[in-house]
Amino acid sequence: MSDQSAALSPRHIPDRLDGPLKRALKSWEMLLLAVAIAIAIANSLASPYFLDPWNLSDATFNFTEKAILALAMTFVIISGEIDLSVASIIALASTAMGAAAAAGAGTPVLFLIGLGVGLVCGLFNGFLVAKLGLPAIVATIGTMSLYRGIAYVVLGDQVYKNYPADFAVFGQGYAVWIFSIEFVTFLVLAVIAGVVLHKTIFGRQVYAVGNNALAARFSGVKVQRIKFIVFLMTGAAAGLASVMLTSRLGSTRPSIAVGWELDAVTMAVLGGVGINGGTGNILGVVIAAFVMGLVTFGLGLLNVPGIVMSIFMGLMLILVIALPLVVQRINSHRRIAR
Amino acid sequence: MNTLRSLLARREALLVLACLLLLAAITARFPAFSTPHNLAGVFNDTSILIMMALGQSAVILTKSIDLSVAANVALTGMTVAMLNHLAPGLPVVVLIVVALGMGMLLGAINGFLVWWLDIPAIVVTLGTMTIFRGLAFVESGGAWVNAHEMSPTFLELPRALVLGLPVLSWVGILAIVLAATLFTRTGLGRAFYATGGNAVAAVYAGIDIGKTRFLAFVLSGTVAGLCGYLWVSRYAVAYVDVASGFELDTIAACVIGGVSTIGGVGTVGGVVLGALFLGIIKNALPVIGISPFWQMAISGAIIIAAVVINARGERVKGRVILRRKELPL
Amino acid sequence: MTGISKTFPGVKALSDVALELRPGHVTALIGENGAGKSTLVKILTGIYQPDGGSIQIDGKEVTLPTAEAAQGLGITAIHQETVLFDELTVAENIYIGHQPRNRYGLIDWVAMHARAAAILHGIDAPISTRTRLKDLSIAQRHLVAIARALSIDARIVIMDEPTAALSYKEVEELFGIIDRLKKAGKAILFISHKFEEVWQICEYFAVFRDGGQVGAGRLDEVSHADLVKMMVGRDVTQAFPKLPAEIGEVVLKVDGYCHPTEFDQVSLELRRGEILGLYGLVGAGRSEFCQALFGVTRPSAGMVTLSGKPITVRSPSDAIDAGIVYVPEERGRHGAITAMSIASNISLPSLKVTSRRNFLRMAEEFDLARKYAERLDLRAASLSQPVGTLSGGNQQKVVIGKWLATLPKVIILDEPTKGIDIGSKAAVHAFMSQLAVEGLAVIMVSSEIPEILGMSDRVIVMREGRMAGVFEREGLTPEALVRAATGNKEAAA
Q1: Residue in B134, B248, B294 nearest the CB of A307
Q2: DSSP one-letter code for A106
Q3: For residue A66, is pLDDT > 50?
Q4: Which of A273, B123, C182, C280 could be bridged to C462 by S-S, CB 3.0 to 4.6 A?
């Protein structure tokens, strides 16, 4: 390999070897897109109701909130960390909104409270991981327990239900035709996340930190600050998701959104984000969100219960990571045999 | 003075102190809490947590984590409960063997994925956690197995008194003894420490780190399987959400007990005390009139506090180059 | 062993080398950094598997699939970096993997401590077996590593640069141990690039260069100069193309820099166009001092003045903004982000320059990367190639290029040629010299005496965290350096 490159003249080092088309064709995203299309075709064959635009629109509600979490989770995972507390943040933010609604707060205030609680939770996670240097897995397992625990302390086995009527707009309203406010928000956020991750200094530094935090620090990247910001991002995303979910359900229980951290991590990993940090992109995660939405919707059409779908999620998470490794393993064996 | 300080620096001593203080505070208001009978009850109640925390600690020592243990309890517990319901004639011993074997198999699946494919443990067990619990649903169809559907021997075994203590407590004690022996007196136990402490050095020392991790997961799974039976028979009910979130408690017990999540540091004594600390709090809450809904938040806060304390202890001290005087060589 | 080869992705580390070891004798394995010595050690201890060739013990062919198998055949090694366990006790570090057992098959701690104490006593190491390794000094850790090697009833003992971190006195102690091992009939492979030591204790030699074997035989049949020639492959005098540079005004001034545990009262002045050598034994506090200067760690006292203005450096980004950059010793860990492309690595500290209002501009990044890649004569297939796929020398060029792109005033190079091939080494030296001529102020940390002598205008020697001497280029001898670094009057070998 080095012999080959050494033979090349040093004066003409090209930017890249492959053209953009060739790179795109070889990419993980293309594979995912193919899978998404295949599932869509299978779904439409399996059920005549699938292709109805309103049905499709309904299907988006199943995954947009999770997908918003996944967008932020992508940043955290690429930076080499993980945030397991996102679902608990949703519960806490929802509880706070419920309490505020019970006290008579109006819709704009509720929105700000939901987002604000998310930010504060993210701030605390960021403080633990970035400032105190705790391992993210354990720190966010702790806050996962803490945040939802507070929701239980406040609510016990009670329910908050009395949300103002116009609060329903976030989770049930439509922007244009079949496109819900949730879905449009997700698309807008996806574009912003893509630009920030791929086109800004911050995004580049997130990759650098995730690949090698030490070398990034030696290159003048403020590692703590980057980590802090990505945890703020998941906090904010969870706050927003909480507003949408609460608005859509119209009620708050402390067990709201249990297990969603798994779905968010699965979406990110399915989208090609390396769990060890440093690799992945937003496009892949967005396609992965659609794949998961289609799978859930398809299984729903077949009347598969939710908990069984979660088996598929778990299997998908492991298979997506395992399959390339197995293929690689088999290939390398074959090479040795030759 | 020095010995006193080094004793106090040990996590075990600190935890004994913390447990005693906690007991003293509760006893001051509610003297009945600290009667031997009640304390034995607390231990009995904490036995399952102690056992599973010990299994978890083996995994954490090797610098991994097992989030699937509680789901393993649910799946194994549901399986043996249904077997008992469908074939009441089957001896309990057979069911215990089934529980052990099934738990071992589930642990081996985790371990295999971590060992052979080198997938991070957190991803593997996050996935298997939902798969195992989902399978419990598939197998039961979401139905409960209630006390009247279980055979009397199935239900009574953990409760039977031997020398004044229930069998469940004895199993807990046996687990502590076995774990202490395994961790300190066997090559595998020391390999757990070596693998998590310095994987490169472990390879140089001839230790197969992949296999060691695999065995840690097998151990953790086997213990969880046994606890699956103990759980459903003790609480006399099996349903899909059994032990939901219990994996967090096992991790909490380890972290409180001074097991480093970076691997390679931790003791059986610390883990047992960490579990007891949580057990005392859990049992004390209803006594002192605090809603059980507080428990989750409290254990979350304790996990965070314990990790912060652990991190302070682990902070890498700089290599001391400046010497006061020449080394006595 | 004969015809051993080992290829890594991108590098042929060993090709068709042979080696013979004899019981009761010490064989020296000589070669520069990157010659393949450590790879050979890893093959002999079962860590790596060779691609070809065979290994025989007593004429019988053996395979070493695992570290356990190698130990079972009586091969033991004392490694370059001490690979031990910080959190475990001394006794356990010595016996891990082969702990003494009682009759129930359980680990016998009493016997373990007793035997460990006996071994440590045998090598005159007064270390308690119950101490945790993290509480020991580097030299003491080395003794533990030696004790570990002795705890295996070994026939073949490999010592991979065992003296690198030891003081003169400790080296003498080690040679005493080697003598005893020799008398006990062990075959010893002694790896070093210090000729004095080789001549003192070895009978046979083998020389590696660039992954191949270039000579072997009895030491009393060759001369010092022969060995050097074999090792370097050219005359040493030509190795350092130092150009005369015009030395200008003082750029960097450090006063009384202190750190609680790593270094104490270090002061220096650095001028435009000057190359300042920083010499000392491994663990003398040189890298730690440089890293504090670069803002990686905080000093406890002292002042830094850059171009006449006092500056405070709290983080590497402060240092970079001020114009001080640091090329770390550990390229893969601190220097390059190996999974990222050449272009991204070079542009990383300069992103503010190549982007507009925080938005990246790829064309500018590639232009910047190409400019420095070409200046450094980088060999790569494309600028999008991950740095990890380059050879060590080319990786180092990327790291240096990354720093030059920030247009610094002071560049600190920590062991800049460690582990890179001869060709790249010469290129790095030539380039360093060129930088000085262009007016950059250079601090070069090095453990290689020829490099220090060949490249520096001035040399500061550090010992145990303190300055042990400042020398001008003229009339500087290796002996003077060694004397200052080891703190021993008779050290000149």
Answers
A1: B134
A2: -
A3: yes
A4: C280
- Cβ(B176)–Cβ(B48) below 8 Å: no
The answer for residues whose C-beta is within 8 angstroms of residue A332's C-beta and 6 or more apart is none
Question: Above 0.90 for ipTM, yes or no?
Answer: no
Identify the pLDDT of residue B322. Answer: 53
Chain A residue nearest residue C388, CA to CA: A2
Measured between CA atoms, the residue of chain C closest to residue A206 is: C348
Q: How many domains does chain A have?
A: 1
Distance from CA of C359 to the nearest CA of A (A): 4
Q: Which amino acid is at C268?
A: L
CA distance B317 to chain C (A): 9
The sheet with strand C60-62 has its strands ordered as C11-17, C2-8, C52-57, C60-62
- For residue C383, the chain A residue with the least C-alpha distance is A15
A contacts of C374 (beta carbons < 8 Å): 10-11, 13
- Match 């070891």 to its residue by tokens: C21
- Interface probe for C, chosen from A3, A12, A13 (most Cβ of C below 10 Å), is A13
Q: Is residue A35 part of a domain?
A: no
- For residue A119, tell me if it sits in a domain: yes
| B198 inside 8 A of chain C by CB | yes
Q: Are C458 and C473 in contact (CB under 8 A)?
A: yes
Q: How many CA atoms lie within 13 A of A219 on its CB side?
A: 35
Nearest-neighbour CA in chain A from B143: distance (Å): 13
Domains in chain C and their CATH numbers? 2-235 (3.40.50.300), 238-486 (3.40.50.300)
Amino acid occupying residue B138: V
Contact A278, C387 (CB under 8 A): no
Per residue in C33-83, pLDDT (tens digit) is: 667 777 888 888 888 887 777 888 887 788 888 888 888 888 888 876 667
Q: Looking at per-residue confidence, does A313 or A103 come out higher?
A: A103
H, E, C per residue of chain C: CEEEEEEECCEEEEEEECCCCCCCCEEEEECCCCCCHHHHHHHHCCCCCCCEEEEEECCEEECCCCHHHHHHCCEEEECCCCCCCCCCEHHHHHHCCCCCECCCCCECHHHHHHHHHHHHHHCCCCCCCCCEHHHCCHHHHHHHHHHHHHHCCCCEEEEECCCCCCCHHHHHHHHHHHHHHHHCCCEEEEEECCHHHHHHHCCEEEEEECCEEEEEEEHHHCCHHHHHHHHHCCCHHHHCCCCCCCCCCEEEEEEEEECCCCCCCEEEEEECCCEEEEEECCCCCHHHHHHHHCCCCCCCEEEEEECCEEECCCCHHHHHHHCEEEECCCHHHHHCCCCCEHHHHHHHHHHHHHCECCECCHHHHHHHHHHHHHHCCCCCCCCCCEHHHCCHHHHHHHHHHHHHCCCCCEEEEECCCCCCCHHHHHHHHHHHHHHHHCCCEEEEECCCHHHHHHHCCEEEEEECCEEEEEEECCCCCHHHHHHHHHCCCCCCC
Q: Is residue A8 part of a domain?
A: no
**Which range marks the domain in which residue A66 is found?**
56-262+274-279
**Which tens digit of pLDDT belongs to each residue from B199-224?**
888 888 888 999 999 999 999 999 99
Query: What is each CA distance from C148 to B235, C84, C142, in whole angstroms?
Result: 52, 10, 10
Indicate whether A286 belongs to any domain: no
Which 3 state secondary structure label does DSSP give A180? strand
What mean pLDDT do residues C178-190 have? 86
* pTM of this structure: 0.86
Contact B291 A153 (CB under 8 A): yes
Contacts of C106 in chain B (CB under 8 A): 181, 185-186
CATH fold group of domain B35-308: ABC transporter involved in vitamin B12 uptake, BtuC (1.10.3470)
Contacts of B320 in chain C (CB under 8 A): 137, 261
